[in-house]
Design goal:
Blueprint: H1 5-16, H2 19-27, H3 32-56, E1 67-71, E2 77-79, H4 80-94, E3 99-104, E4 111-112, E5 122-130, E6 141-149, E7 171-177, E8 181-186, E9 192-197, E10 202-207, E11 218-220, H5 231-242, E12 247-248, H6 254-264, E13 266-270, H7 283-296, E14 300-302, E15 322-325, H8 327-352
Parallel strand pairs: 3-5, 11-12, 11-13
Antiparallel strand pairs: 1-2, 3-4, 5-6, 6-7, 7-8, 8-9, 9-10, 13-15, 14-15
Helix pairs in contact: 2-3, 3-4, 5-8
The structure holds 2,5-anhydro-1,6-di-O-phosphono-D-glucitol and manganese (II) ion (MN) (2 copies).
């Protein structure tokens, strides 16, 4: 059957809505900042394509899979794909004239663009491969990013000026390497997703202005940590076990778990544990970018006590507990945490009186 002219026009329109065109349209201007953000998104897309290409063939090429034998600043074993993806972001931005530095999970201190290269006004914060434990078994992984403007001097070269809340982010997003490679981004004007069309080598608009349902059935948490959690999180999980309409999904890669929740609703939880009261996820390049997206999509991101976007980190690699997803589901988790905190303060007050 031949497509009607109207259907054909619609398909062509969609196929022509590339990422860079979309960013320019979002900003509705040809200002310097609009041009910069569009160019930055283009570079991120290039990094996503390079990483996607390597992942697609990872089992076939030498030296793509497995550990390097090193341990990163987080105390975690580094995978070869972590190093590759970290370097990809540096390479695509080094000569771009768009950023002055890049800060990532894999580098103790930010990487400063060398003086013989053009230097820009922005900082890219990123998690080059999120969910690295999935890499060697061909399951989904992602890259997370956020863009901030450099504010003030960074005299010691350790990025102290980055220790500000998440509302300072100009843009944020992720690339999800799954059956398709997908890029989701926001520049503070809704959340939009793009799918990589390998035959064109372009990210093409898939969905504009994604909104998260106010409630969803999924709770996504590593229940293997059950006995490591506070009572409040244990109580919350008992609550969802005892009530109908909940189902568990956990993929071990934040980007994938988050993406499911963004589209279908529910809540992702990474609470603190006895050993790590701050939890596992890093604020500046994991929790904050996703919190930026979820608020733009009408959802909520919380530490249990405050909004993730209000947290000011005390160091570059600071961690926080993360509860993110549908507003009602996040509020339910918060109610358990805040109730326990009230009980604890009452106990202390009684003990000291
Ligand atoms: P990364 O691979 O960047 O270190 O991040 C791993 C994170 C995140 O992707 C995931 O949600 C979480 O670790 C899984 O942790 P557990 O194995 O403790 O559940
Ligand atoms: Mn990660
Ligand atoms: Mn990572």
């Amino acid at each position: 059957m031949v497509n009607s002219p109207a259907a054909q026009e619609h398909t062509l329109d969609r196929d022509c809505m590339t990422l860079s065109r979309h960013v320019l349209q979002q900003l509705q201007s040809f200002s310097a900042e609009a041009q910069d953000l569009s160019a930055i998104m283009n570079r991120i897309a290039l990094a996503g394509k390079l990483i996607s290409r390597r992942l697609t063939r990872a089992g076939l090429v030498e030296g793509a899979l497995g550990f390097t034998g090193d341990v990163n600043v987080q105390g975690e074993s580094v995978k070869k794909m972590d190093v590759y993806a970290n370097d990809v972001f540096i390479s695509v931005f080094k000569q771009s004239g768009l950023v002055c530095r890049l800060a990532s999970e894999e580098m103790e201190k930010p990487y400063y663009i060398p003086e013989n290269c053009p230097i820009g006004r922005y900082t890219l914060l990123y998690d080059p491969i999120d969910g690295s434990s999935n890499v060697d078994i061909n399951l989904n992984v992602g890259s997370i990013f956020a863009i901030r403007q450099q504010e003030g001097e960074d005299l010691d070269g350790d990025g102290k000026d980055l220790l500000q809340n998440g509302r300072k982010q100009l843009a944020a997003g992720y690339v999800l390497y799954g059956p398709s490679t997908l890029l989701v981004y926001s520049i503070g004007n809704g959340v939009h997703s793009f799918i990589l069309d390998p035959s064109l080598g372009e990210f093409i608009l898939a969905e504009e202005n994604i909104t998260i349902p106010s409630h969803g059935p999924v709770y996504s948490v590593n229940e293997g940590n059950f006995w490591q959690w506070d009572d409040s999180i244990r109580e919350y999980t008992r609550y969802v076990h005892r009530h109908e309409g909940y189902t568990a999904r956990y993929g071990g890669a934040l980007v994938g778990d988050f993406h499911r929740i963004l589209l279908q609703g529910g809540v992702f939880l990474y609470p603190g544990t006895k050993k790590k009261p701050e939890g596992k996820l890093r604020l500046l390049y994991e929790s904050s970018p996703l919190a930026f997206l979820i608020e733009q999509a009408g959802g909520k991101a919380s530490t249990g006590m405050e909004d993730i976007l209000d947290v000011v980190p005390d160091k570059l690699h600071a961690r926080t507990p993360l509860f993110i997803g549908s507003t009602e589901d996040v509020q339910l988790v918060e109610s358990f945490i805040q109730e326990e905190s009230r009980r604890e303060s009452e106990k202390k007050a009684i003990a000291s009186s």
